[in-house]
Design goal:
The protein has about 110 residues and is mainly α. It has two domains: about 1-55, no CATH class; about 60-110, no CATH class. Helix content is about 60%, strand content about 10%. The protein is built from four helices and two strands, in the order E-E-H-H-H-H. The protein has helices at about 35-55, 60-80, 85-90, 90-110, and strands at about 10-15, 20. The chain has a two-stranded antiparallel sheet with strand order 1-2. The longest helix is centred in the middle third of the chain and has 23 residues, at about 35-55. The chain starts with 8 loop residues before the first strand and ends with a helix.
Length: about 110
């Protein structure tokens, strides 16, 4: 199947909505644009690096979890929330205790 003329699917009219129905992609692919070869080569190399890295990291699940926490912390900073990585790793009990202590400090400060 020629890559440049491939249609991923079509919109099908349903009762009161349209849905997208993809076509199967398990074909023999042919393309004329040499840029696609370079992109596939770069993607293949990146996958190889990722695979090699996963063999080096002793606990890949923990690594992925830490990466997700870091991304969530960075994302919340964009939204204006100031959360440190140490706070992002706290359990709910620790957060409740910290908030209670902070609230108690505020009350004591106001009383003085």
């Amino acid at each position: 199947m020629k890559f440049e003329t491939f249609k991923a699917g079509a919109w099908q009219q349903r009762y009161q909505y349209k849905s997208f129905e993809p076509v199967p992609v398990n074909h023999e692919w042919v393309w004329e644009d040499a840029t696609i070869n370079a992109l596939l080569e770069a993607a293949n190399r990146a996958l190889g690096e990722l695979n090699a890295f996963s063999l080096i990291v002793p606990d890949i699940d923990l690594f992925i979890e830490m990466h997700v926490v870091k991304e969530a912390q960075t994302s919340s900073r964009i939204e204006g929330t100031q959360t440190g990585i140490d706070e992002a790793l706290m359990s709910e009990d620790q957060i409740h205790r910290k908030n209670a202590m902070t609230g108690a400090r505020c009350v004591i400060t106001l009383m003085l």
